[in-house]
Amino acid sequence: MKIEKVAMNTEKVRCPYCGHPVNAVKGKDAKCQGIFFKCKNRDCKKEFELKI
Questions:
Q1: Measured between alpha carbons, how far apart are the two ends of the chain, in Å?
Q2: Environment class of residue 39 by beta-carbon count within 10 Å: exposed (0-12), middle (13-18) or buried (19+)?
Q3: How far from 7 is each of 18, 20, 48, CA to CA, in Å?
Q4: Domains in the chain: boundaries
Q5: CA distances from 8 to 11, 33, 44, 49 (A)
Q6: What would the pLDDT profile of 31-47 be if each residue is shown by its tens digit?
Q7: Under a CB-based contact definition with an 8 Å cutoff, are residues 40 and 22 in contact?
Q8: Distance CA 19, CA 27 (A)
Q9: pTM for this structure?
Q10: What whole-number distance in Å separates Cα of residue 38 and Cα of residue 31?
Q11: How many whole angstroms separate alpha carbon 23 and alpha carbon 50?
Q12: Alpha-carbon distance 26 to 16, whole Å?
C-alpha cells in the first residue's frame, strides 16, 4: 500500500459564516463548484457551497 503525502501548499477549507475548519483540504490551483458542506460547529450548522 502506497501512502501519498499532502503537499505543503495546501490549506484547510473553513466555514464562511463562522470560520470553523471543515474536513476538506484545498490546493493553490484547485477549482470546483457544486460541492456542499455542512458546518460541524455546534452553534453554526449552516450548509454552504465550496466555490474555488
A1: 31
A2: buried
A3: 26, 22, 26
A4: 10-50
A5: 8, 23, 29, 25
A6: 999 999 999 999 999 99
A7: yes
A8: 18
A9: 0.73
A10: 19
A11: 12
A12: 15
